[in-house]
Every structure is written in structure tokens, then in C-alpha cells.
Specification:
The chain is an all-alpha fold. The protein is about 80% helix and about 0% strand. The protein is flat.
């Protein structure tokens, strides 16, 4: 009975996550919607990074500011979000050595 419950709950959480993956390819959005959707990862990145910029090293807040500026520059050049995060982490790491 427990195994059936686990399988049922797995399907209940997996199906709503898989269906949009198949439907998104078939949808056609207007150009302004696509531009807006393309900006979401960078907006989320800013919301995640900004609170920690000044608290990286409280005694040296300029290190966090420089890391944030590196993230802004990398995002401006249109790099992948993962590369932007790794670049800012690398900048902060190099400044703290």
C-alpha cells in the first residue's frame, strides 16, 4: 500500500511538470512577450545576488560591489546566466585571496 501511495504521489507531482514542456514548443508568442520572457532569468539573478552584495565580507563591502559589477557586465554581453554567476563568484574569490 505504501509503494502504491509513493508511485501515485510521484505521478501527481511529475505530470504537471512534464506537460508544459511539451506544450511550450507549440505556442507562438508575440515578439514583445518573447523579449519579456528572455529578461526573466536576469531579473531573477539580480534579485538573488543583490541582497548578498554588501554582505559578502562586511568589513570590505567593495568586494561584493565589484562582484556585482562583474555580473552586470557579463549579463550585458548576453552570456548564459550560469556563466554570469560563475564569473561573479570568481571575481569575489580572486579579490578575497
Amino acid at each position: 500500500m505504501i509503494i502504491l501511495t509513493i508511485i501515485g504521489m510521484s505521478l501527481a507531482t511529475m505530470i504537471p511538470r512534464i506537460i508544459p514542456g511539451f506544450l511550450v514548443d507549440k505556442l507562438q508568442f508575440r515578439p514583445w512577450v518573447n523579449r519579456w520572457l528572455n529578461a526573466i532569468p536576469y531579473a531573477a539573478l539580480g534579485a538573488l545576488i543583490f541582497p548578498g552584495i554588501l554582505s559578502v565580507i562586511p568589513e570590505q563591502p567593495f568586494i561584493g560591489i565589484i562582484g556585482g559589477l562583474v555580473a552586470i557586465v557579463l549579463a550585458y554581453f548576453g552570456l548564459n546566466v550560469v556563466l554570469v554567476v560563475l564569473g561573479s563568484i570568481l571575481a569575489v574569490f580572486l579579490l578575497t585571496i
